[in-house]
Each structure stands twice: as C-alpha cells, then as structure tokens.
Amino acid sequence: MILFENILLLMLVAILALQFSRGLAIPYPAVLAAAGVAVAALPSVPVVAIDPALALALFIAPALLDSAYDLPPRELRQHWAPLLALAVMAVLLTAAAVAWLGMAWAGLPAVAALALGAVVAPPDAAAASAMLGRLALPRSTVTVLKGESLFNDAAALLLLAAALELAAAPDEDFSTLLLHLAPAVPGGLLFGYAAGRLYLLLARQLKGTLGGILFQFVGTFGTWIIAERLHLSAILAVVVYGMTIAHTAPYRSSARERVHASSVWESAVFLLNVLAFFLLGLQARDILLRLDPAPLREALVLAGLVLLAVILVRVAWVFVYGALARLVARHDGPVSAPGWRPSLLAGWCGMRGLVTLAAALALPGDFPGRDPIVISALGVVLGTLVLQGLTLVPLVRALGLHGDDGVSEELAFARTALLDAGLAVLPAEGEAAAVLRDEYRAAREVAASGENPRAVRDIEALKRAAIVAKRDCLAGLRRSGRISDDVFHALEQELDWAELAATPADRQTILEG
C-alpha cells in the first residue's frame, strides 16, 4: 500500500510539474526526471526490485512499437545513410568509448563495461521531438532524428543482450556466443512479420471495440514475450511487428478507433516514463546510501566522465560523417551532404531517456559492476536532459535553421486533391449538395494557397466558438436537471466529434508539457 501511495504521489507531482513547465522551453522528460528522483528521495518510499525480464518487456516493447509505427519505409530508403550513421555507428562508437572508459578508468570487467556502453548509448528521440515539434526545421533533419530512435534502440539493446549472455555464461567464448545469437536475429525478423500479419487478421474481428484497443497491447507484449520464450530477438521482433501493422492497420480502423488508440498509447507511454524514472531513482538512492565514501566517489566521477563521453562522441561522429558525406558528394555519390548547422543540431540531440532507464533496470542484482552502471545511467539521463534539453531551442535559433518548402507544398497539393475528390462525388442537384459544394470550394481556395482551412477560415473559428457555447448550454441543462446523464454523454460525444472536425490536426495533439 505504501508503494501504491507513493506512485500516486509521483503521478500528482508529475502532473503539477508538467502544468508548470507548459509554455517553457523544457522537454517534458526532464520534468519527469526531476519528479521521479524527488519522490524516490523520500525516506518513506521502499526500494522496489523489478524483475529484469519484466523491465525490458514493460518499458522497451511499447517504446520500440511507438518508434516503428511512425517510421515509413520510404523515408528509411531515402535517408538510409544518415540513419545508418546515427542509429548504428554512433551507438557502436559511443558504446565502445564508454566501455573503454569503464575498463581503463573504473576497472570494470569487460562484460560490465560492455553493458555500461550499451545502457547509455541510445538517445531518446521523444525528448528531442518534444522540443523540435515546436520549431520549423528542415524536413530531412527532423526525419532523420525521429527515424534514428528506432534503430539506435535496437542496436544498443542487442549489445546489452550480448553482455547479459556473456555474464550468464562466463566460460563461453565469443564465437560460441555468436553462434548462439545468430539464429535469433533472422528468427526475430521472421517472427515479427508473422506476428504482425496474425494481428492484422485477428484485429478485423475486434474493429471498433474497446477490446480492439486492448488487443493492441496484447499483441505488442505478446510478440515480445513469445519471441523471448523461443530464444529469438524480441527487440527485432517488435520492430518488424510494428512496421508490419503500421502501414496496414490505419486503413482498416475507424476515425474514432484511431483517436481512442492514440490517446491510450500516449497515456501509457507517458506513465511508463514516470514509472521508469521513479524505479531507477529508488535503486540509485539505495546504492548511494549503501556505498562507502570511496567507491561512491568513484561511481560519481565515472558518471560524469561517461556523460562527457556520450556527448562528445556523438557530436564528433556527426561532424566526421558530414565531412565524409561531402567528400562523397563531390564525386556525385548518392549520399546527401549535410551542412555544419544541421550536423551540430543532430549531434546535440542526444538526450537519453526511457530506453537507458529500462536497460539499467534490466540488469540482474548480481550483475558485475551493477552499482556504478545504475549511477552512470541516471547521471547520463539527468545530465543530457538538463544540459542538452534546456539549450536545444536556443541552439536552433542561434543556428538560424528554418523549415524547407517541401512539406508545405505537399500539404497544399494533398489538401486540394482531397477536396477535389470530395467535390467529384457530390450530386449535380440538391440543396444540401449545393451548400456543401460551396463549402468545399471555399476551403479549396484556402488550401491551394498553402494554408490549413481549419486554422485560418473564419467559419471554422465560428464553429469552434459555437461548440464552446453549446458545451456551456449542455452543462447548464445537466446541472438544472432538465436532461439525464445518458443524454448528456450522448450529446457531449457529438460535440467532441464536431470539435475534432473543426480543429486543425496540430491542435489535437495531447500536450506532454
């Protein structure tokens, strides 16, 4: 009961902190980090030991699905070179640098050093997206930064899986480990695709129901757990599963189902972020209280050095890749060459978050060097969120980066095409068709100019104002007892859909901070 009470307290603190930070240039994971560590520091909160397998399934599977769902294969093919550089090479270089640091300076065994590098290597795109979403940036830069989150998680977690395998079987040589892990990679890819196709088949029977939304969680966690039981790569299985259903499921679901599912998943991922910060904060508090002054001082210094290493390695590699890309571009190669401003921005978007927290929680209690690894993980997360997160927006403004015209041109073209399609099916006669035809033509003129009709047309603003008045009237009818609760909820739902129809999509996003 004490643990449950403190989780409720944590949620309340997180809600209040996010309300306070709204409108400020602070990424919401930084606020969650402060809230989680603050509540975990309370002496009345008991230390909670979470099963390592549960930590990976609970925290990593939704994060991987979220990233895989939003990454279109076309963008993957178009930006394969920078994605490979950031999502694979940057992670491997960071893990190698941190592993060397752990062995050379802290004297960690090789398996512990490898685990430390894998834990702190993957950046969290959610923190960068929370800030970059408020700014107009070059389209290619945003695409690469969002796309890397999927593959850097997979690369880092595969390294962590190798470290855990080596720790579980210390007498096993590296070649035997490779033979053991080799079938897991293609097997995970095939199983993820099969699981995605099976989900699409079964989801048809649950279309438009609350069970269908719950089945999304069952499918995601079930794919991870079954892959683990089959000794396949659960990481790659969930990645392929998410990419398989992402480009088919949206066309088979209703608007209401998509709105509900999006809200549920955003809330679930947000809650998991809160719990991850809280649980790792509890374990870090226990370590800080348990360690003697000398090893504690060494662990804190190691955390500072690791923080410096993960920042410098990423920035340095991004500039090296940019130089290599420009060198290839001079010889008419297919690789695009980023300038130094986008390179600096990409290098600075290296905040760590949920994956690093979950990877640290996934280490068994008897794992060698676990205490300094946990301290370093929390230090890197807090340090990058504060140092890089708070300076990201000022950096973008100082660099003078602006969005390109490709997005606005495509939006204008698509909006006019959709309105033309609507006009084409309207009957030639009829009062209702004439009214709707005038409505579509007026909206088309606005859309052709590159503006969102819902955002700039006076009639849409009047619709939203009228909906507000309707809501006030409906609430008054309920308070006065003129209508019953079931009538109130039915009309409230109608107003909700009317408001969605009159509101631009960018104003319908749930705000984290």
The low-confidence runs, each spanning 5 or more residues with pLDDT under 50, are: none
Number of E strands: 0
Determine the structural class based on helices, strands and strand pairing. Answer: mainly alpha
Percentage of residues in DSSP E strands: under 5%
Q: Which descriptor suits the 3D outline?
A: globular
Oligomer: single chain
What's the average pLDDT? 78
Write the element-wise H/E pattern from the N-terminal end onward. HHHHHHHHHHHHHHHHHHHHHHHH
Radius of gyration: 25 Å
Profile the largest sheet. none
Q: Total helix count? A: 24
Q: Approximately how much helix is present in the residues?
A: over 70%
Terminal residue distance: 29 Å
Can you walk me through this structure?
- The chain is mainly alpha-helical.
- Helix content is 77%, strand content 0%.
- The chain has helices spanning 2-21, 28-40, 52-69, 73-78, 80-104, 110-120, 125-132, 139-168, 174-181, 184-203, 210-229, 234-246, 249-252, 255-290, 293-329, 340-348, 354-361, 370-387, 392-399, 406-424, 431-448, 453-456, 458-479, 485-502.
- The two termini are 29 Å apart.
